[in-house]
Amino acid sequence: MSVLRTLAEQLFRASFLAFPRRLRVAFAEEAREAFRADLQEREGARGRHGPLWFTVRATANALREGIRERIRRGPLPGHGATTQKTTRRKTMWGGLGLDVRHAVRSLLRSPGLTVAAVVVLALGLGANATVFSALKSTVLAPLPYADAEALVMADIVAFRTSRGERRVMPWSYPKFQTFAEAEGRLLDPVAGYGGRTGTISAPGDPERIHVEVVTPDYFRVLGVDMVLGRGFGPAEGDPANPPMVVVVSHGVWESRFGADRGALGSDVILNGRPVTIVGVAPTGFDGLSGGAAAWVPVLASEALFNRFMIRGARAHWMRAVGRLTEGTSFEEALAQIESMGASVEAAYPSSDPGWEYSTSARRLSDVRVNGRASSVVWLLTAAALLVLLVACANLSGLLLARSRQKGRDGAVRLAVGASRWRVVRGTLVESLLLALAGGALGVVLAIWGARGLALLWPRRFLSSTDRELRFMSPDAIAVDGSVLAFSVVISVAAAVAVGLWPALRASSVNLATTLKDGGAASRGRRGALDPRAMLVAAQVGLALVLVVGTGLVGSSIVRLLGEERGFNAENVLVFSYALPGSSAVSEDPNTFHDEFRERLLRIPSVEHVTSGCPPLRGHCWGITRVDALEGGEPIPQGEGPEIGITMAGDTYFETLGVRLLSGRALGPEDGLDGQPTGVINERAAQILFPGGDPVGRKIQVGVTGDGKEPLVEIVGVVENVMYDAPDQEQFAELYYSHREFPDRAIWMLIRTSGNPMDVVPMVRNELTQMATDVALAELTTVEEVVRGSVGDRRLLFTLMVVFAALTLALSATGTWGVVSNSVVDRRRELGLRLALGAGRQGVIGLVLRASVRAAAVGIVGGTVAAWTGSRLLEAFLYETSQSDPLAYGLGAALLMAVVVAAAWLPARRATRVDPVEALRAQ
User: Fold this and answer.
1) Do 170 and 40 share a domain, yes or no?
2) What global pTM score does this model have?
3) Among 361, 446, 742, 833, which one has the highest count of C-beta atoms within 10 angstroms of its own C-beta?
């Protein structure tokens, strides 16, 4: 931070050069001290309150005021020096309007070049504006709460010192109460929240919505005021009178009540129970967990969801967030919260001796960070910048060739008394007009690009890494005022990058030679040192970086999708639903599920129907440990191997095409008596029973049903099924029949003979006939789930393909333009070679060799840059080396082929030069 602070102070100090000397002497030191103090206050802040924004604003203000002061002063009588400075200033900027008019006429005289330049810049600027909209939403945007820097998230932290493990965990409600009731807290108020899925069925059709279960101070902590009614208060915290009330989102109020203010005090049916609306949340507020359509008090969760949410000391589901008391620093609050861990552990000691528990805290602004999303956005920002650099090199080459052809024009202007700055300014004005036009078109492209990016954005990128805080909505990826301002800035920077080199070359011609020989005098040396060849090499090198990176990510995706997943994803529909707790059908959920399954089997084209967790979506029941093996060696408590728990229907393995290796699958007879039965996967068999037959053996795990034997009998072994992403740890697996643990909420899978989405209307109809207050949710296909398992890489790969294609196209057009102009410059030479007997193939080879040399230089430089930059892709590579020779070799071959193809047509045109005309010219 000290280095950044020093740079900021130096920048602000330099801005004071805009003031007259007497004002600098009088006030500069005082202004710098004030700036330094204000900068220190803003350290650690973000957005408009951060040090970067403050430095830019303060520097701009100083420059503006300094310029105004100089203008107000004007030349003083008798002050010759001041008069000379004013004259020089007028000379420097005088005639600017004339230069603009001249640049417009010049561009209109070359409409083809002008349109091409605007399109080239629009592609580069549009790509950067699109990616900046995502960068702003994911990294730069502050939290949308008042005084967000005072918001702190408190955590339970579990340590397993024997294995060096550390886990940040949510709270259980009893443990949260112990924390919230502590006296003298520096975090006050404090609230708990957790997300659940519920069914709202009246008024209107049944719909599955996201519900946040919160403690009474939730809205007060966040500083959220209701647009109608009130939030929760002390009345919602009385356990003797559980409040059946709800706060609905602005969207629910509009869609189900038509924004009628009379909705306040009316009832909605949530999970089969009436709850009274006491408030309507403001527009855009969807809770800390994101996407919430309703909020209910935690004491109502027993009636609406599950009694263990309140009573279970080991049911960890709730996050805790609070606000720092006035005058309290985060460090002070952190120290206090860490000291409170002992009292929470004493009140609710751990049942697992292998784990130690404490409490800790993080700033809410730090919790929001999604490392994968940030990495993707920064990588895309770098890729978009490469596209812009290629576009600038491309256009700079075109303008450089044009300036060489117009060299006599610059020489004439210098000869009649124009300053070198005037010639440079004329070319820069021309490039600025092109950049602004390209920026305007780029903004239009960015509007479309932002919409497409929002559609491609993986759902997992909406929340913080462990999904405790949803920090953005895809709708936030849009072109707004900040994106427009960014577009203007990079357009001006692009104008300088594009026009500076051609402008300097146009202003540094040899007057006598140029006026005598015209454009021919401006021809420079050919070969690798030719400026145009250097620009071709730069384009090729930059494009190679993107092509190689795209190849590495694409190779990883192919390997991930090619992994053995253990199931057949083709034509399988998956969805979930939940029975309302107060409904008669919820008293025996297994009967409802079985009848629904039988109804679905009667739908034409349906081949199999089952219940159970869909693959690649994690473990529906989580991960536990094996506590004992019947007849085996005792396992120390908490030291058994980890095993995933999955609920499965009778034909689960047949529906997913999972092979049975030994024993039998689960059937209608399982789960109906006191002896639990289960099927394990091949990985579990190898870990628990190496070299032996698991069928008939019994194991004990950390999940036991009411009235059931603690040991589970193994009745079969199936091949491994992938439940987590391929690049994550795969667990041993135990499958229970869904009858072992009757649950109102369930997943269903349907295999069809055709497109599984075609049966969706019939599935909805069957469910509505059985229960009018039950709605389908999370409806998709297993094939889409498979594609979504590589969602972060797919987003990165998709946009890198687009950017790489743009750079290839720009490199091709840039090479074509440079070679075409080179052929025009060398017309006499090539004609003489043909007149002296050179073959046409020899002339083509002569022209192509220059392009190949430039491409070779670019490929060498691009290979080094790609190898260095590939380290940034490490987190997104799977079984792919950062120096994969295939990716580098194919990338280099592709770029060389593009350059040769782009240079071929101008090279062929060179053979059509008339030798007689060339000799006559000589």
Assistant:
1) no
2) 0.74
3) 446
